[in-house]
């Protein structure tokens, strides 16, 4: 896959962003399974309400990115 777009992000991203106490839940655990079992170029999400790039992940809140 080229891109994954979700509302929430996987556990790994939540931990790398330092937001474990606010955002870890069953959905992020399921997305962690997707992250570890899928080959992808970039993952976009926005649930954490901040703008930050961490590795293959982009957390979007106010930013708009052109991906094509």
Short note summarizing the structure:
The protein has 68 residues and is of the alpha/beta class. The chain has one domain.
Structure explained in plain terms:
This protein is of the alpha/beta class. Helix content is 32%, strand content 19%. A 4-stranded mixed beta sheet has the order 1-2-4-3, with no helix packed on it. The chain is globular and about 35 Å long. The chain starts with a strand and ends in a 9-residue tail after the last strand. It contains 3 helices and 4 strands, in the order βαααβββ. The model has no long low-confidence stretch (mean pLDDT 94). It has one domain.
Structural class: alpha/beta
What proportion strand? 15-25%
What is the terminal-to-terminal distance? 14 Å
Helical content (DSSP H or I, runs of 4+): 25-40%
Number of helices: 3
The major sheet is characterized as: 4 strands, mixed
Rg to the nearest angstrom?
11 Å
Mean pLDDT: 94
Order of helices and strands: EHHHEEE
Secondary-structure map with pairings?
Blueprint: E1 3-5, H1 11-16, H2 20-23, H3 26-37, E2 42-45, E3 52-54, E4 57-59
Parallel strand pairs: 1-2, 2-4
Antiparallel strand pairs: 3-4
Features:
68 residues, alpha/beta, four-stranded mixed beta sheet, 3 helices
